Amino acid sequence: MKLLSFIQDAMPLRLKEVHMVKQPFIFNMVWAIFKPFIREKLKSRIFFHGSKMSTLHKHMDPSHLPADYGGVLPKIDYSGKDWMAGVEDYVEFIKMLNSFGLRKKSA
Questions:
Q1: Cβ atoms of residues 17 and 45 within 8 Å
Q2: For residue range 46-104, what is the model confidence (pLDDT) as tens digits?
Q3: How far apart are CA 20 and CA 52, in angstroms?
Q4: Contacts (Cβ under 8 Å, ≥6 apart) of 17
Q5: Which helix (H) or strand (E) holds 90?
Q6: Structural domains for the chain
Q7: Could you tell me which residue ranges the CRAL-TRIO domain spans (predicted)?
């Protein structure tokens, strides 16, 4: 709910479209839970494609997509494991960013 609130009310950019591709089956259940809390404007900008890349291509030209999504760019060759090493390089910076905000009152 915090993420949804941030996206709808506080994110300092405007989402024109959100495309979900190759979403797992369980995502449909999660979507059903959150859907009532999403404003119509944002709801109308969210598109679900599953494994049908032809529907994605109606919004994005294949020349801008990797082969994984029916595009002409090289296939994606990294995983979450590859991302973790990059994140670990910025742990201290992330801690610093997380320190901003209101201070909690002492009891």
A1: yes
A2: 999 999 999 999 999 999 999 999 999 999 888 778 888 888 888 898 888 888 876 66
A3: 11
A4: 45, 46, 47, 59
A5: none
A6: 2-60 (3.40.525.10)
A7: 1-77
Closest CA to 35 of 64, 71, 4: 4
The token pair that represents 17 in the structure block = 């479209």
Whose tokens are 């201070």? That residue is: 103
CB atoms within 10 A of CB 4: 13
Task: Fill in the amino acid letter for 15.
Answer: L
Joined together, the tokens standing for residue 105 give: 């009152």
- Its pTM stands at 0.66
User: Under a CB-based contact definition with an 8 Å cutoff, are residues 21 and 50 in contact?
Assistant: yes
Query: Are 13 and 48 contacting, i.e. CB atoms less than 8 angstroms apart?
Result: no
Residue 7 is classified by DSSP as I
